[in-house]
Amino acid sequence: MILQHGRPENTADRLPKEVRVYELLDQLNISYDRIDHEEANTMEICLALEATLGAEICKNLLLCNRQCTDFYMLLMPGNKPFKTKDLSKQIGSSRLSFASGEYMEQFLDITPGSLSVLGLMNDKENRVRLLIDEEVLSGEFIGCHPCINTSSLKLKTADVVNVLLPAMDHSYQTVALPNYAEEENG
Fold first, then answer.
1. 127 neighbors 119 (Cβ within 8 angstroms)
2. According to the model, what pLDDT value does residue 179 have?
């Protein structure tokens, strides 16, 4: 794995959805670092990537209510445990569950294992509400996939919040998920 700055020199063998990410970031003059790697479909693999990337790769979850009418993308630290009840109270939605991969593809043009805030560029109808844990927002960088899980990007959190999200016509809600490990040790 080699840390590189910006888009790949040759995008001929890249998926169109990945190339669209690079085009959007370049169009918005957002600077980013990138590494190409084996398929990263577990947090364990992502932890190994973080050392090279120099940024924590967010855990990204696509959630929905029981009726599958409201959808939420949650960005949270990868090492933080997640309990739906903690989030449900904050967003006023009961019975949250994980949305199926079909919804990821339909709304975000992303397959399971590749979920990323960058997929919101494909959510033209704003079907997915973005929720970001306050710990992610307090970090200088966000690590994420460019809509595929064989590359990872390091973006400035400020660029994501202040430039990228407005350009994608998406806002976000800050949430505060408890860190149970800290509570047990404290």
1. no
2. 83
Q: How far, in Å, CA of 75 to CA of 143, rounded?
A: 11
Q: Could you give the 3-state DSSP secondary structure of residue 54? A: coil
**What one-letter code names the amino acid at 51?**
A
Find the length of the chain: 186
Return the number of other C-beta atoms located less than 10 Å from residue 77's C-beta. 17
CA geometry: angle 44, 175, 186, nearest 5 deg: 70
pLDDT over threshold 60, residue 182 = no
- pTM, rounded to two decimals: 0.91
Nearest to 11, CA basis, from 153, 151, 133, 135: 151
Pairing of strands 4-5, 59-64: unpaired
Q: Please give the backbone phi and psi of residue 116, each rounded to the nearest 5 degrees, phi first.
A: -160, 150
Cα dihedral sign, 39-77-138-171: positive
How many CB atoms are closer than 10 A to CB 22?
20
> Per-residue pLDDT for 183 more than 60?
no
Does residue 170 contact residue 130 with C-beta atoms inside 8 Å? Answer: yes
6: burial class by Cβ within 10 Å (0-12, 13-18, 19+)?
middle
Paired with 144 in beta bridges are: 153
In 40-170, DSSP assigns E strands to 59-64, 71-76, 97-98, 128-133, 141-144, 151-156
Sequence letter at residue 173: Q
